[in-house]
Amino acid sequence: MANTFGHLYRVTTWGESHGGGVGAVVDGCPPQIPLAENDIQPDLDRRRPGQSKIVTPRKEADRCEILSGVFGGKTLGTPISVWVRNEDARPEAYREMETMYRPSHADYTYQAKFGIRNWQGGGRTSARETIGRVIGGSIAKKMFGQLAPKLRMTAFVRQVGTITARAPAVGVSYREVESNPVRWPDAKEAAEVVKLIERVRSEGDSVGGIVECVIKGCPIGLGEPVFDRLEADLAKAMMSLPASKGFEIGSGFFGVRLRGSEHNDEFYMEGKRVRTRTNRSGGVQGGISNGEDIVFRVAFKPVATISKAQKTVDVKGKSAELKARGRHDPCVLPRAVPMVEAMSWLVLADHYLRDRAQMGSR
Amino acid sequence: MANTFGHLYRVTTWGESHGGGVGAVVDGCPPQIPLAENDIQPDLDRRRPGQSKIVTPRKEADRCEILSGVFGGKTLGTPISVWVRNEDARPEAYREMETMYRPSHADYTYQAKFGIRNWQGGGRTSARETIGRVIGGSIAKKMFGQLAPKLRMTAFVRQVGTITARAPAVGVSYREVESNPVRWPDAKEAAEVVKLIERVRSEGDSVGGIVECVIKGCPIGLGEPVFDRLEADLAKAMMSLPASKGFEIGSGFFGVRLRGSEHNDEFYMEGKRVRTRTNRSGGVQGGISNGEDIVFRVAFKPVATISKAQKTVDVKGKSAELKARGRHDPCVLPRAVPMVEAMSWLVLADHYLRDRAQMGSR
Amino acid sequence: MANTFGHLYRVTTWGESHGGGVGAVVDGCPPQIPLAENDIQPDLDRRRPGQSKIVTPRKEADRCEILSGVFGGKTLGTPISVWVRNEDARPEAYREMETMYRPSHADYTYQAKFGIRNWQGGGRTSARETIGRVIGGSIAKKMFGQLAPKLRMTAFVRQVGTITARAPAVGVSYREVESNPVRWPDAKEAAEVVKLIERVRSEGDSVGGIVECVIKGCPIGLGEPVFDRLEADLAKAMMSLPASKGFEIGSGFFGVRLRGSEHNDEFYMEGKRVRTRTNRSGGVQGGISNGEDIVFRVAFKPVATISKAQKTVDVKGKSAELKARGRHDPCVLPRAVPMVEAMSWLVLADHYLRDRAQMGSR
Amino acid sequence: MANTFGHLYRVTTWGESHGGGVGAVVDGCPPQIPLAENDIQPDLDRRRPGQSKIVTPRKEADRCEILSGVFGGKTLGTPISVWVRNEDARPEAYREMETMYRPSHADYTYQAKFGIRNWQGGGRTSARETIGRVIGGSIAKKMFGQLAPKLRMTAFVRQVGTITARAPAVGVSYREVESNPVRWPDAKEAAEVVKLIERVRSEGDSVGGIVECVIKGCPIGLGEPVFDRLEADLAKAMMSLPASKGFEIGSGFFGVRLRGSEHNDEFYMEGKRVRTRTNRSGGVQGGISNGEDIVFRVAFKPVATISKAQKTVDVKGKSAELKARGRHDPCVLPRAVPMVEAMSWLVLADHYLRDRAQMGSR
């Protein structure tokens, strides 16, 4: 609840952009899973600011430290506490946020709800908060390395502004995605997107986009009737990410145009396995994984914090003009990819344990 | 969890399509809220099969009965148990589902997960399950009648197949929506949609669509950082409805094309109240309601059960051809409207109580 | 939470003493467990009023009906809704409770908390509420019949007033306990206790006592660090029963007098199994079951509702004298036995599934 | 769940005796509560090893550090992460625990459940784990300083071995309790108890006892029907503390001997307030606080780790003799007092917020 995600594989995140640090406590993880800082660090590095010229230049090494729950290189089955110290904090760069509300940011709603907010770097609303999610996701990935080693996940940027990648989702290679700073499925096309992001940044503006995620080898049977359908928990997970505005799975919004006879995924047998010839269901039927690829998309709006002048109001209710300083992403998409993956790992890990509770080891 | 929705305003639903009945237990509702069966019945009637010529002809009066939690016409603050008896059950009409998996339905995944399923009318996967949700939503609506009487909600059908309603969301009238069997925002245009649905039905097929929901007068401050953002819980709620494939709020998937400077909602003062000139945020910023209209859309795929012949496999792993009998909706959209509303009421009720817990009465 | 018990094996109870009925929804139960009404009825009969001359004479057949979650005689893995209709309701017998608070009963605190209460028969505070618990417990017992068939549980009355049974806990036979109306471990001694209870009743008074429970064959490893220790959840379960005032496990309150060297349970090997020579731990060490007998005791105060005249106040804040009418137990102990068992089954079932989630099938 | 306590005021603890440190994340705390490290430190100092000659000599300053959730000296309403670094760790002193199971300790059950354990200083089963609880409790105490400033709590040691304090619970002074190393209600009598503990220590043994807790000024209405009764959650909280074996509230185990007419607490009016003349209920009726003093007792067994030789088995299933080295408490009671208080604060805080959610600010 609130800052805890999951029922059995539970991740509690804490921390503000400017403060002692950010971290996560992972509870419910099975014991005897090999785990060390360097299992987590690569994902943090993919999320890290300053990783390329098209993301925020804030300099954070984001080195994680495991404080508990691991002994002799293996998980103990008790809470795993991992944190990252904040280093390159420059609160003075956010001084105007103390008095002004950034349009479409959380400044106003936090103030309205809590009557107080940490205005330095956005406090808890900073994308820095997602470090805890990535920590939790990386540990979940390690867990599946033991429990469902065929499970594979690749998220990538499908769209930035009006540029859309053509590559079919199911064929996208993790290596190709990670070979370019946009995390575009086709490294050659990526140069054009880099240009767009650089232009947007030079204009003091930002741009949105879509992340797509493909999960292969998901065990059959994950997801629970009726409220905790797998796609419902994926939707919640994705819509809990900063700046996300939409979620769709399989045929999604496009599929509404089809007839049932066009949309239904015909079953057939592949040896002893029940398969579907098409995958408009996106790997989930009746809320439960059917063993086909899970494919979904998440829409991210353009980042709210821009350096262009904007009209707004201040905390005293007076009109004001704001030009945000601080260091911001012109496009959150490249860094959203590991966030989407992390949240997906959390959802899968939770449902894997839930299924095992009710059904036993499969 | 699973068949319970909400942390403080908690609805547990139970029941299969064919069996003793379906119902809900609502726990956590404040006491002293006036409540009687006829507060719930109108919403059940809007969800009911047989309500018009474009929905399934199954004849269910769906008369609800309150079994507990109400005394002298008011809630007690203890669990409210409400149920509806199943009447027009015809299990024999589903006999082929005993042995065959309907393409894109939950037959296969339930069998794969549980090793058993109630194949009569879809059992727990039937839309009949949503009766419990509507019960919970109607009681939440009554609660808000006392606690936030300015709160108003109108859901309607935005799209069926390729036909899209032009009416701007914020001006849609509940009365107009309820004046036509499609629940279309413009009653005059609805005739065309009725024709489409009838044609689809006559072809033994089905068609999808989009429901849009507008919530006015939502208290400021609902939603919690970081996982339980209001839009995240709305997304989960909607994606837990049968046949839903997508969710978007505010600018949604379209907004990704915009620049931040185009997308941001400029703040201004309306008297002492902070307002936004546009509402691309959809009434939620940083996961917390800002007092503007909450506007979101839900994509529903075409109903999986159709009477056209389809290729599939049976439970023994042999190829088969299925022509579904039974009584089915050619288009779930008209009946999805009260379901979307019900789930929205549940989300708001839960977050209202959660906000009150942490912040006190506002 | 509140009216739901358990995280994975979840029982939600509902219903008041006077109203439509009482029942439970059991969610999370594994599928394919054989289940029918007559698996539940015997435990309800043990809890039932009017079962002997020493309990309340209210006439309730307490026939249960399964409304959902079972198909072809087996559980579906979806919510199991079971209820019992209220029949012998005599609200007029409770008329004085409408205006007066029974000393040491929940009348005043419910009124103070909720501002409303169902004064007929105690409403939700009636022991009748425990029907839902017994339903949930009986289903859990059936589950263990499949999953851990060596698990056995026997609760019995250890003490009534100042009369204490001498039988050692571990040797008590279920058959002997059920052979006498007190549920005393030694049927011969029971006559004296019956006399005491009858004398107390004839005086318009009530008397308390202690229930002891022995669980044999509990799987090793149930219980979780650190808050959800097995004994912590047993304590909560027992202290949630009406009229309970104390809980102790193993050496309990007596053990505080001992030295560590006297109290510690020495380990030894019995073949390949680690055993303890004594069992002052009561079957739980560090919050986790160790395979020895789980032994605990629950203190029940004398029933608050008595027909002797008592001084009290009325709802308007005036002094009053109350002689309770209605039908009440002079001693809740005989009927508390199946309640204690039911709550124990719930705790074990929940922890069994939790352990299986984290550790896999053992 | 597991390492998280509470539904609305939620404390997640982490950490092992030997490792990076121990800490807690507190989620759900209202914003704008003044909070600094020195609000927490005094309670940690009361829990700290080495605080007096009768507790374990391990040298830990236990200086806490707030890492998040506080800004400008006030809580933000977001997660408060607080930790304490481990300093005086001497893993080599526990080398024999790597291979041997301490009788009546958690060594065996952790190994049996998880297949792995941190044997250094007991790992997660160390009393060091309670640091996180004390952190959470101290923050809750600060919260009540704002929200219910009349609330007062005093826990003290009622019994050590066979020595029992005579002071009536309701008159015990916090200052007197804290004036002696035993936390005995009568400082003069304490010398005798110190002698007992010192003798026990010199014998390489340990001794148990009872902590009693009195809560004055508790708001009326805390606690929820039916499973989350206030006494049920207090019982769970106390029974989750290391070494606790029993819990009783009000008349507890003694009260079972009484007749209802002797036990019932007669109501009377004190001005406009409903009071009871006696308090055998212990401040809770029907699971809900009635405004009288909440009084309960917790039994703690003698500490399992003793330096006297004991027979046991090793991890390979061979008989062994163990003389524990390491630094241990001969009597956990003095340090249990702040633990009991901390858990009580957590229960009250959670129920306060739950009551406010359902009932609004009172």
**What is the total number of structural domains of chain A?**
1
Could you say what the CATH topology of chain A is called? Chorismate synthase, AroC fold
| Beta-strand content bin of chain A | 15-25%
Q: Identify the CATH homologous superfamily of chain A.
A: Chorismate synthase AroC
The CATH architecture of chain A? 4-Layer Sandwich
- Rg estimate of chain A, integer Å: 21 Å
Side by side, the strands of the main sheet of chain A go: 1-2-3-7-4
Alpha-carbon distance between the two ends of chain A: 29 Å
What does the overall shape of chain A look like?
globular
SS elements, strand count of chain A: 18
* Continuous helix count of chain A: 9
So what's the CATH class of chain A? Alpha Beta
> Helix and strand succession of chain A?
EEEHEEEEHHHEEHHEHEHEEEEEEEH
Helical fraction of chain A equals 25-40%
Low-confidence stretches of chain A: none
Q: Roughly what is the average pLDDT of chain A, rounded to an integer?
A: 95
Explain this structure to me?
The structure is a homotetramer of 362-residue chains. Chain A is α+β, with helices and mostly antiparallel strands. The first copy, chain A, has a single domain (4-359), classed as Chorismate synthase AroC (Chorismate synthase, AroC fold). Helices cover 29% and strands 22% of the residues of chain A. Chain A is built from nine helices and 18 strands. Chain A has helices spanning 37-47, 95-99, 107-114, 130-147, 174-178, 187-202, 230-239, 260-263, 333-359; strands spanning 4-5, 10-15, 21-27, 64-66, 70-71, 74-75, 80-85, 152-160, 163-164, 209-216, 244-249, 267-270, 273-276, 284-285, 288-289, 294-300, 310-313, 319-322. In chain A, strands 1-2-3-7-4 form a five-stranded antiparallel beta sheet, with helices on one face. Chain A has a five-stranded antiparallel beta sheet with strand order 9-8-10-16-11. A two-stranded antiparallel sheet of chain A has the order 5-6. In chain A, a hairpin with a 2-residue loop joins strand 14 and strand 15. In chain A, helix 1 packs across helix 4 (130-147), helix 4 crosses helix 9 (333-359) and helix 7 (230-239) runs antiparallel to helix 9 (333-359). Chain A starts with a strand and ends with a helix. The model of chain A has no long low-confidence stretch (mean pLDDT 95). The interface between C and D is large, with 111 and 111 residues.
